[in-house]
Amino acid sequence: GVPVAVRNLVGRDVIVAWLQPGPEPRKRIPQQAKPLTNSSVMSIDSFATHEFIVYDAAAEKYVEKPDGHESCEFWASVGECAANPGYMLVTCANACNNEGKKKNNGELKAIFAVADNRETVSIVDNDGVWEVVRTGPAHDAQKAVASALDACSATHEDGAPTCGEATVQCVSDELQTFFAPKRDELSIEKFLFDHALKIAPKATPDPDAKGAAYSEDLPKLYRDIERASKETDLSEACPDGARECLRDKATHETVFLTSTIGTLRKATRARRHDVRNATCRNHEDVSPHSPVVEKIWKYDPYTSDIWAGTAPDKKGPAEPDRAIRYLFDPSSIDAQIIVIDDFISDEECDAVQTQATPRLARATHAHEGDLSHVSKARDSQQATVRPEGGRKNERDLSDPIARLKARSVAMANHLSNYTLQLDGQEDLMAVQYNPGQQYMLHCDGSCDGTPFVSGGRLATVLMYCAAADGGGTAFPNAGVHVVPKRGQAVYFSFRSSDSEGLMEDWHTEHSGCPVREGSKWVVTQWLRDGVSKENPHSRFDPSGGPVR
Ligand SMILES: O=C(O)CCC(=O)C(=O)O
Ligand SMILES: [Fe+2]
Fold it and tell me: 447 CA to middle of ligand 2, Å?
């Protein structure tokens, strides 16, 4: 079967029940039922055509009684229950009942069927009526075929078809514009996979890996890539241009392209993960810049450009000159990884750890929309920290946490030519790892070569307050491994200074290696562009765009 994702976007908990066809007319019997909490996703394995019903978890168990006519629902939906109650309330009691409940927000429901197609089914609340929104490759293909058929059957004013006589050829050509971006995506994924293969540690097999190192069948994957990259002439496959045939072929082609891209991505990820594990085991500083480029950063908080016109109101101690080392900075790809010694002072670490310790909680992340999911990708304890008295004191530089935050924003402007503001940035995040705990490969914002979206993250300052045995920070795709030292910071940026620019692709993907012994403490300042006092970070996703 193929997985079908069902997303609950109706704003309340629901039950998803499998329907079994019953005796006519239109009788469906709910079989198995599973709860699906608000804003979460479930995956259904679909083998054949299944029907589902989604209903409010707070409502009574949904029971559909047979109605006396197959058009009952339609009639009810157009107001017949009120207009013609004599007939309707007898013959279509069920449909009228549901229609009434739909209107007064009582029992809400949505019905949908899935077939053997990979897709996402979102249940949304449209003004008190639940609707089913479908997305996914098969669905996209069907839409594309429909619009290609439309385009090709359009005629000029004089009645001549706009695509000439060869309508099948026309549909086939039209569909290539739908396939082209998918084939581009495939070639990008192939490029990334080739890079991952090159850096994967073939000579040092991972001792922790069980069984075969990689699960995919490489020769088959290469054959699939080759096949999927080629243009297919649908007019050959469907010479008589039958709608059904075109739809099936286009759907098949799309699903094949999508699943090949998916397999490639997985294969790439497995290699990156292996490189990460290898550098975690070695646990030695590594950088492709040799000798490492070194510079001095002179920082004066009072003349900094981060204050948006309102200068700091209380002074802090003088800022020392700091040594910065470029571990990775190929200016062509807009990614930087830079180490700064003595970035965070003992006093500042103490302030962070003192404030965070009583509030440390297991890390959570957004898992399939469930925001309180305890993370497997991120196994650590964390807490945000703010200046004494809260965010309103971010301009008080006598406060160690305010100082750290201002310094982080100012350094990003200096190192990457950004014009970031202090106001509206995220709080500093303290993270503590015990033995065995780690943070799997991830990007802090997006690092996949897509356009930057305002409000998103574009750089990170990662500061170390306690270095354990193990627990390095690995950037496998950039060939960088950082062994933490107390007081040190790693700065990495993943967009150029151009706010309309693209995110870099994958060099800043990173991971906190497993701690072997002791306790590791880091403080992170994730940096955003496009935030301000009026539009703080909480309005945007880490990858930009409004929070829904
Ligand atoms: O602990 C580390 O070395 C990495 C932490 C990290 O990636 C983060 O906080 O975003
Ligand atoms: Fe990170």
Answer: 12
